[in-house]
Specification:
The N terminus and C terminus are likely disordered. By secondary structure, the chain is an alpha+beta fold. It has a domain of 64 residues: Alpha-Beta Plaits.
């Protein structure tokens, strides 16, 4: 399966991900997460979202989350026309 090309005709377009953590991070952490958007939500979780170019980069983000010691709630790939913020009531993939 091939990925769609970017509008400029360059390499493959990056997939967008929404990563939810238990606990709150301030938006200033965005720089540490390579410019991904960091949003503390009212339910006591944090949403980190944005384009991640490949699986290696996704694993790098997940390692940074691990290093912070915050529990991972969910990792969701966002379709191009999906919502930018997933609802706290939306079904999530639970930790094993």
């Amino acid at each position: 399966m091939t990925r769609p090309r970017t509008a400029s005709g360059g390499g493959p377009a990056a997939d967008r991900y929404a990563i939810r953590l238990r606990g709150s991070l301030a938006p200033r952490w965005a720089a540490w997460f390579d410019g991904l958007v960091v949003t503390a939500l009212g339910d006591g979780t944090t949403l980190i979202e944005g384009p991640i170019p490949d699986q290696a980069a996704l694993h790098g983000v997940l390692q940074r989350i691990r290093d912070l010691g915050l529990p991972l709630v969910s990792v969701t790939r966002i379709d191009g026309d999906g919502p930018s913020h997933t609802s706290p009531d939306a079904p999530t993939r639970a930790d094993p």
